[in-house]
From TrEMBL, chain A:
Annotated family: Belongs to the APH-1 family.
Function summary: Potential subunit of the gamma-secretase complex, an endoprotease complex that catalyzes the intramembrane cleavage of integral proteins such as Notch receptors.
Record text on subunit structure and interactions: Component of the gamma-secretase complex.
Source superkingdom: Eukaryota
InterPro entries per the UniProt record, alphabetical: Aph-1 (IPR009294)
Keyword Isomerase: no
Subcellular locations according to the entry: Membrane
Stretch forming the signal peptide: none
Membrane topology listed for this record: Multi-pass membrane protein
One Pfam family hit: Aph-1
Protein name per its UniProtKB record: Gamma-secretase subunit APH-1
Organism from which the protein derives: Oncorhynchus kisutch
Membrane-spanning segments: 6-25, 32-59, 71-90, 117-137, 157-179, 186-206, 218-236
GO biological process: Notch signaling pathway; protein processing
Automatic annotation (TrEMBL), chain B:
Xref: SUPFAM superfamilies: Zn-dependent exopeptidases
Pfam families tied to this protein: Ncstrn_small, Nicastrin
Subcellular location as annotated: Membrane
Family per similarity comment: Belongs to the nicastrin family.
Name listed for the protein in its UniProt record: Nicastrin
Protein source organism: Oncorhynchus kisutch (Coho salmon)
Nicastrin small lobe domain sequence ranges: 51-223
InterPro entries hit by this protein: Ncstrn_small, Nicastrin
Length: 258, 668
């Protein structure tokens, strides 16, 4: 539509991701490297799924509409599965790398914990996924026109931006939960992650009824966020302590030398 | 991965629509068309547009200009002149893009919009029915470059005696700083009107509801001010390939002698006396690419072509002492480019004859719109004060009506010859005083203006053969005014040029002078037609036709040899091509001002056309400013909130994410 819509949608979609990057990742070069590697792994999964999609579309019957719809659903499901597979592959790679890093470094403790790696890799997945979802749309939002001349809904740009923000946050939470369940060998929680990813992707088939796809997605974001919070060592007690500003006492108490 | 694969971006409420759009999108993606489904959902590109472009001369710039990133405006379909208040003052969403029908495309409406150009983003004209009269040209065409200047005769200058084009409103010579486009009446216009009726109509006097239907026009012109400025800017680039900002107008004149001379020997020819029979080739309109010129130019040169054929046949049998030069001048509308060039060449010994060889001049002007069979003969009163000139002219006043003795010549190429020397001459026209042509130099001067209609059930070939008495003339009129791609024109053209024949009439606008030896379609048509009508068919083969000098009886000094396609015989598909020997030549017609480097010349034409990068038009919906600001506000709020929360979380991370260890000795 114009520059104001462009900047508005950019901030909505990438605001949390930028804030997270600035405050938690930008200072530590090791985290930056792992973030970029995570983004690369997401790109690999996209490459594989788009190859499969391209081949299947070429050999399919382009006239048959039901076949094309089925192909689309198949494409979505395949892509979700490939992403989670790449996430698992990245986890395996990071475990191996951590051992190697430990051997090389001078200190005794690991420079970066697996929990931090989970968060960073999830955010890397989220960045790249958000970029691919949103950049094309942002480029067209700069022009003077808005969607609607063929009868579509006007709120396309806004809802795409909110969806992208949800996806980025979700990828981050899923990363944390995924790595944690791999560490603890809780395979059922792994399955829940994959199922929730599939659910969110399939919710987008509701578009253009944006309310029908955005509201459930944000509910899922909240739930998975809570789960990730508990997985990464948070608890209600800690939260209450922080919010009522009694955290200093707690820290002093906990770090009392024994 | 979200379900936002290729299809879900399009997402329609009904499954069938969703899937159709998937099909469409996939079709476009996989067929190598630029694949941007989001842009396709926003914009509808308009392809059949004709823009108004910028022309410059020694003192002015005329035409239209858009800003460099296009001009956007809310569409408003104008219903009457009173409705103009809405875009100019009352409408709440300026700027407006005004859509006019041809009956409202008048000078008063355009000038009102020009004066309020902050509220008008552009104008789009949809040509429909012809108005009763319309001429965007000036009332006194070519008044400064004809022969009637203050020094020649004060009373006749500036159309003091006769105003030739009284209906002229001068719209073509105005300067607009918004773009003006013309659309053909077809599906695209329907799409625009549908979009307007769906979104932009005022309901019950209340304000309009966003989103509104808008249009964006791109026609940014590079040249400004006048020819001297743009030529100076063009040559300022010191690289090997200079960047031109504007191009001089020009083309080629088509010339043919009945008895040809050696084309390499320029200058005066002893004891040679030549009568020049002249006609004008080009014409123009407000939208230059839409130039038709039925009465303005076609009537004249088609008559001359028919006369050339008849005279050539007659002089074969009985050769005369005096030679005849058939000259078809191009670029005459723009201050006599072609004829001024020929006079300049003659004066400077750059043409095969010079002004001393010219005995007299006969010009055929506008001859088609006649009441009865009246044809008038115009002559120049000032040169007739000379007795020899007067006697010559008197001799020709036989069967025709004569215009008043003291009336000056209408705008004609003959005036340029008179500017150089007092030569006897006449101009034939269908008007006694002012023009009979109600659509002089406008888009409506077309086949319908000449009542050139055919019964609707005829095929193109049948229309070509739909003859009255003078077969060749009606066939020529058909080819030049209705459809140039017909069997006769195909037969007379060269094989490599057959693509210039289209299902439409050719363009009559002179165009820019190309540096390569390429003329425009009209020039080639007239050249090959004249060759067919006045030349002789030979038995040469194609390779001999390219190099005829090796043969004993042929000479490229006197003749030019053209290989033409020929007719298709009834029972075969191969054309019988042959070589035509003809005296027709193309002579360069670019204003001498550009050779002399005098870009402020008052003597010669200095018209140039600006260059541009691209010209396009598109329609789309625009959202209200409030929604845009809301989006920006929400975005900034989200960003700040997330910055704050992240800062809070990252500083308290030790506490928030510590693993729960119950201290054995409770803290107090």
């Amino acid at each position: 539509m114009t520059a104001s819509v462009f900047f508005g949608c950019t901030f909505i979609a990438f605001g949390p991701a930028i804030a997270l990057f600035l405050f938690t990742i930008a200072r530590d070069p090791l985290r930056v490297i792992f973030l970029i590697a995570g983004a690369f792994f997401w790109l690999c999964s996209l490459l594989l799924s788009s190859l499969v999609w391209f081949i299947t579309v070429q050999i399919s019957n382009k006239e048959s509409s039901s076949q094309q719809k089925g192909l689309l659903i198949f494409g979505v499901v395949l892509s979700v599965l490939l992403q989670e597979t790449c996430r698992f592959g990245y986890y395996k790679l990071l475990k191996k790398a951590n051992e190697g890093l430990l051997m090389l470094s001078a200190e005794e403790t690991m420079p970066i914990s697996i929990r931090q790696l989970a968060y960073v890799s999830g955010l890397g997945f989220g960045f790249m996924s958000g970029a691919f979802s949103m950049v094309n749309i942002l480029a067209d939002s700069v022009g003077p026109g808005t969607i609607g001349i063929h009868g579509d809904s006007q709120h396309y740009f806004l809802s795409s931006a909110f969806m992208t923000m949800a996806i980025i946050l979700l990828h981050m939470f899923w990363g944390v939960v995924f790595f944690d369940s791999c560490e603890k060998q809780h395979w059922w929680s792994l399955a829940v992650v994959v199922i929730s990813h599939l659910l969110v992707s399939c919710l987008t088939f509701q578009n253009p009824q944006y309310v029908g796809s955005l509201v459930p997605t944000y509910i899922i974001v909240f739930l998975v966020g809570l789960w990730a919070f508990f997985c990464s060592g948070g608890s209600l007690r800690n939260l209450k302590l922080c919010l009522t500003c009694k955290d200093k006492d707690f820290l002093l108490a906990n770090h009392r030398p024994r | 991965m979200t379900g936002r694969g290729p299809g879900t971006i399009i997402g329609f409420p009904h499954k069938r629509k969703l899937v159709t759009s998937i099909k469409l999108f996939l079709f476009f993606c996989l067929s190598d068309v630029s694949c941007n489904s989001v842009a396709q959902k926003i914009y509808v590109e308009l392809n059949n547009t004709v823009p108004c472009v910028r022309l410059l001369n020694a003192t002015h710039q005329i035409g239209c200009q858009s800003s460099i990133s296009g001009d956007t405006g809310v569409i408003h379909v104008l219903e009457s002149e009173a409705d103009l208040e809405w875009p100019l003052s009352k409408g709440p969403n300026p700027p407006y893009m005004v859509l006019l029908e041809s009956s409202l495309f008048t000078k008063s409406i355009m000038m009102k919009m020009k004066n309020a150009s902050s509220r008008v983003a552009g104008v789009v004209v949809v040509p429909k029915t012809s108005p009763p009269e319309f001429s965007p040209h000036t009332t006194c065409p070519n008044e400064n470059t004809g022969v009637y200047t203050e020094t020649y005769d004060h009373n006749l200058a500036h159309c003091n005696t006769t105003v030739w084009n009284p209906r002229g409103n001068g719209l073509s010579y105005e300067e607009f700083d918004f773009p003006v486009f013309s659309l053909k009446e077809d599906n695209e216009t329907e799409v625009i009107k549908q979009c307007y009726f769906d979104h932009n109509r005022v309901v019950n006097g209340s304000g309009l509801q966003y989103p509104l239907c808008a249009m964006q026009l791109f026609s940014h012109m590079h040249a400004v001010t006048d020819t001297a400025t743009c030529m100076r800017r063009s040559s300022m680039d010191f690289s090997t390939s200079p960047v031109m900002v504007c191009d001089p107008l020009g083309g080629y004149n088509v010339c043919a002698f009945i008895r040809p001379y050696n084309s390499t020997a320029f200058g005066h020819k002893e004891n040679e006396s030549v009568v020049i029979a002249a006609a004008r080739l080009d014409s123009k309109a407000f939208f230059l690419e839409d130039s038709t010129g039925a009465e303005g130019s076609v009537s004249g040169f088609v008559t001359l072509l028919a006369a050339a054929q008849a005279l050539c046949e007659a002089t074969q049998e009985a050769p005369r002492t005096r030679n005849i030069l058939f000259a078809f001048f191009h670029g005459e509308v723009f201050d006599y480019i072609g004829s001024s060039r020929m006079v300049y060449d003659m004066k400077n010994n750059m043409f095969v004859i010079d002004l001393d060889n010219v005995h007299s001049i006969l010009e055929i002007g506008q001859v088609a719109v006649r009441s009865g069979t009246n044809l008038f003969l115009h002559s120049d009163p000032v040169s007739r004060r000379n007795n020899t000139v007067h006697d010559e002219v008197r001799g020709s006043e036989m069967l025709l009506f004569v215009a008043h003795f003291s009336q000056p010549l209408p705008p004609s190429s003959f005036q340029r010859f008179l500017r150089a020397r007092a030569i006897p001459g006449i101009v034939l026209a269908d008007h006694q005083t002012d023009f009979n042509n109600r659509y002089y130099e406008s888009f409506y001067d077309n086949a319908a203006h000449l009542n050139l209609t055919y019964p609707s059930n005829l095929s193109p070939e049948e229309q070509l053969e739909f003859v009255t008495d003078t077969a060749k003339v009606t066939q020529m009129l058909y080819g030049f005014l209705v459809r140039s791609n017909n069997s006769w024109f195909q037969a007379v053209m060269a094989p490599e040029l057959k693509d210039i024949l289209q299902p439409n009439p050719p363009q009559y606008y002179v165009g820019v002078a190309k540096s390569s030896h390429q003329a425009n379609a009209l020039t080639y048509l007239v050249q090959y037609l004249l060759a067919n009508l006045t030349g002789t068919a030979t038995n040469l083969t194609q390779s001999q036709c390219k190099k005829p000098d090796e043969l004993p009886n042929e000479s490229t000094y006197l003749y030019s040899y053209l290989w033409v396609q020929g007719m298709v015989p009834p029972n075969s598909t191969q054309r019988e091509s042959f070589c035509v020997r003809t005296a027709v030549r193309l002579v360069k017609a670019v204003s001498p001002a550009f050779d002399l480097g005098d870009y402020v010349s008052k003597e010669y034409s200095t018209w140039t056309k600006s260059q541009w990068k691209f010209i396009k038009a598109r329609i789309f919906l625009v959202a209200s400013r409030d929604l845009e600001m809301l989006t920006l506000g929400v975005g900034v709020a989200v960003l700040f909130t997330s910055l704050l929360v992240t800062y809070f979380v990252s500083t308290k991370a030790d506490v928030l994410f510590s693993s729960v260890r119950e201290p054995n000795n409770a803290a107090y």
